[in-house]
Amino acid sequence: MRVLVVEDEKYMNRIISKKLKVEGYSVDSCHDGEEAINYIKSASYDIIIMDIMMPQKDGYEVLKEIRYEGNPVPVLFLTAKDALEDRVKGLDLGADDYLVKPFHFEELMARIRVMIRRSHGKASNQLQIADLILDINAHTVKRNNNFIELSAKEFAILEYMMQNAGIVLSREKLETHIWNYDYQGASNMIDVYIRYLRIKIDKDYEHKLIHTVRGVGYMIKDKEKNL
Fold first, then answer.
1. Does residue 12 sit in the same domain as residue 40?
2. Tally of domains within the chain
3. What per-residue confidence (pLDDT) applies to 58?
4. Higher pLDDT residue, 193 or 173?
5. What is the Cα–Cα distance from 185 to 39, expressed in whole angstroms?
């Protein structure tokens, strides 16, 4: 999952970004509203965590602009503005959640998981395709009740594919959701990770879940249920 952190206090920005990366998220960060608009126009994000009081443009202005342009990306305001009218204004402008500083990181992580579930129409922290189960909270994967060890990137790719089960995802789309804006790795990196996942997820099972759509990309689906 790819996250944009918009926070003008540089220390706080670094701490939030570091915590998110430890949790397996791909993170971009910026420090003012104008810069945030540029990032949002240049990439697709699964969630935006944004302060309200910022230079250039405040969080309200950024939110108003992206909603006016029809961008439905989930937005969580993370701010010291704790007055009721501030919360109401943020939510009325289209924010999906509002967390007041100081905050506990555990609560921030939980709210992020809820927002991502909601944006994908999921009611549970568990994603399941056939006998493959991914638990977002516990950060575990098992198939046919056998636990499978994945690296952070493998987990992130599998989670994104399972969030979009039955949908063909291009290499570019997978790459932009898993790596941040500054990523300059090998052009075949997605193919490499898909190969790793196939070895761990499909190799020992007759029923294959990860499929290649030639010339387009990859998808995960329970093939037997889609014939």
1. yes
2. 2
3. 94
4. 193
5. 20
Of 73, 91, 119, which residue sits at a domain end?
119
**Is it the case that residue 32 has pLDDT exceeding 90?**
yes
Residues 91 and 108 in one domain: yes
| Residue 226: predicted pLDDT | 46
> pLDDT tier at 23 (50, 70, 90 boundaries)?
confident
Q: What's the CA gap between 50 and 54, in Å, rounded?
A: 9
How many degrees, rounded to 5, is the angle at CA 105 between CA 41 and CA 156? 55
User: Considering only CA atoms, which of 167, 154, 142, 148 is closest in space to residue 195?
Assistant: 154
Query: Which of 96, 119, 142 marks a domain boundary?
Result: 119
Q: Give CA torsion, residues 96, 129, 140, 116, to 10 deg.
A: -10
Q: Is the domain of 11 the same as that of 111?
A: yes
Query: In this structure, are 87 and 141 located in the same domain?
Result: no
88 and 144 part of one domain: no
* pTM: predicted TM-score of the whole model, two decimal places: 0.67
**pLDDT above 90 coverage of the chain, percent:** 57
